């Protein structure tokens, strides 16, 4: 099985970018270790304690954020970082060529139930002539990402990542701590009979979206002419991984629960990286009115609706929203 760096070289990844990716992934290996230790990692501590500066009793999401942040800010190639857990971007090395944004522990409600959780990340080129900690680096449209990935801390720890070419799957070999290539190319089927959606929000949806879901639920007797199944992990990483592996559509639509916040998921840390991975696996990723990767962001923590997965099912959904 091929290791990560030779695979990145095969993909023609710039030699400046490789160490940034390696550093980021080093942090995820430490998180994977913490996650596996579960409750023991807080109680018993570990050899990793020195990295966390006396914060051993903190929640895993706080620890994960600190680990990734600390390692990236020491990496010479990183101009700045932004995290779902931080209010503002944080400056790194003024000469760094890249900026990295991440959701350190996606699906954090699953920590307590020993369920699926993950890390989502994206890398953009740093902009010249812009202050190191400026949000501007991070408000580039998603089509400028040079790398997007997620790590799923499941029964095994896997990494799904694209650097512009195919979305590839790696599995963490815990015997020597390396991500090894286990699937050269992810490929999402165009059609599906599965959707991932929080049905409890139904009363807050638009009429168009209600109509789409209603027709899914009618199954073989309805206009869609087939029976659908529903799955919901409460962790985007787990749900999107299922969609990319077995086909499906993952949807978090806009709703009218809170007029100030019509969507839940973040463009920078969640929608953009998942959109790039999905498209490079042959799928489709739209917000309600445009391709996610073409959205011009206006704020660091901007939220957007997402419809991601099997291309024909994404199109079918979009038809109801016109
Ligand atoms: P988080 O980043 O705070 O964990 O929130 C994002 C998560 C996604 O992983 C998941 O798809 C969604 O929120 C679940 O939302 P809901 O609470 O509606 O089930
Ligand atoms: Mg998240």
From TrEMBL:
It comes from the Bacteria. GO terms for cellular component: cytosol. Residues 15-183 form the Fructose-1-6-bisphosphatase class I N-terminal domain. Substrate binds at residues 106-109, 198, 264. It is found in: Cytoplasm. It is an enzyme of class 3 (hydrolase). GO terms for biological process: fructose 1,6-bisphosphate metabolic process; fructose 6-phosphate metabolic process; fructose metabolic process; gluconeogenesis; sucrose biosynthetic process. Residues 189-321 form the Fructose-1-6-bisphosphatase class 1 C-terminal domain. It catalyses: beta-D-fructose 1,6-bisphosphate + H2O = beta-D-fructose 6-phosphate + phosphate. Signal peptide: none annotated. Gene3D superfamilies: 3.40.190.80, Fructose-1,6-Bisphosphatase, subunit A, domain 1 (3.30.540.10). Mg(2+) 1 binds at residues 84, 103, 105. Pfam families: FBPase, FBPase_C. Its EC number is 3.1.3.11. Homotetramer. This is Fructose-1,6-bisphosphatase class 1. The lineage of its organism: Bacteria, Pseudomonadati, Pseudomonadota, Gammaproteobacteria, Cellvibrionales. The gene is fbp.
């Amino acid at each position: 099985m091929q290791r990560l760096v030779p695979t990145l070289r095969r993909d023609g990844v710039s030699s400046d970018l490789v160490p940034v990716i390696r550093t980021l992934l080093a942090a995820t290996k430490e998180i994977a270790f913490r996650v596996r230790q579960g409750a023991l990692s807080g109680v018993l501590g570990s050899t990793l304690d020195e990295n966390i500066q006396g914060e051993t009793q903190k929640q895993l999401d706080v620890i994960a954020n600190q680990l990734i942040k600390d390692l990236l800010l020491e990496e010479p190639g990183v101009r700045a970082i932004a995290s779902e857990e931080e209010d503002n971007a944080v400056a790194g090395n003024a000469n760094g060529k890249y900026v990295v944004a991440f959701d350190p522990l996606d699906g954090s409600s699953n920590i307590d139930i020993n369920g699926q959780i993950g890390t989502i990340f994206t890398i953009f080129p740093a902009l010249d002539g812009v202050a190191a900690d400026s949000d501007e680096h991070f408000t580039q449209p998603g089509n400028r990402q040079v790398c997007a990935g997620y790590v799923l801390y499941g029964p095994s720890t896997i990494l799904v990542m694209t650097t512009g070419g195919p979305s590839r799957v790696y599995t963490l070999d815990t015997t020597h701590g390396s991500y090894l290539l286990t699937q050269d190319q992810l490929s999402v089927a165009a059609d599906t009979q599965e959707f991932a959606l929080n049905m409890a929000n139904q009363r807050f949806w638009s009429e168009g979206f209600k109509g789409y879901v209603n027709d899914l639920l009618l199954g073989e007797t309805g206009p869609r002419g087939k029976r659908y199944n529903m799955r919901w992990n409460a962790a985007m990483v787990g749900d999107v991984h299922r969609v990319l592996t077995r086909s499906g559509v993952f949807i978090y639509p806009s709703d009218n629960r809170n007029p100030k916040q019509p969507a839940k998921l973040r463009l920078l840390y969640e929608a953009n990286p998942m959109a790039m991975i999905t498209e490079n696996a042959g799928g489709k990723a739209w917000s309600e009115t445009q391709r996610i990767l073409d959205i011009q962001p206006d704020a660091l923590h901007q939220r957007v609706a997402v419809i991601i997965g099997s291309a024909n099912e994404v199109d079918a959904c979009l038809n109801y929203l016109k």
